[in-house]
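Let us work through a complete example step by step.
Step 1: write down the sequence.
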Amino acid sequence: MSSSKRIIAIVDDDIRLLESLENLLESAGYAVRTFSSPRALLAAGLSDLDCLITDIGMPEMDGFQLRETIGRTRPNLPIFLVTGRHEIADHPGKSALATVLFRKPIDGQLLLAAVEKTFID
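Step 2: predict the structure and record it as tokens.
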């Protein structure tokens, strides 16, 4: 990795998951910004982000809608979708929209490997 840290945003309405992923990614050397809602992320801006990890099931705007919104201005931003609802993860039309889809509970090592791979490719 270069001397400047890659910035990863995490959006989830579960504060415990935000804290857990923040700790995991920071321990791997990433700069992390956490948001408890898609609107908070959008208000903060997207220009300096290198990657996004977002929950699918959130009130007001779900992860698919957030991905679609971000795609209009940052179409090449790597986005990882996370869900605790396995029926969504198994739906081929929805999961095909994701760069990578993770089911909760998230395997931290798999997530780190997937994030690292986006910066190598």
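Step 3: interpret the result. The chain has six helices and five strands.
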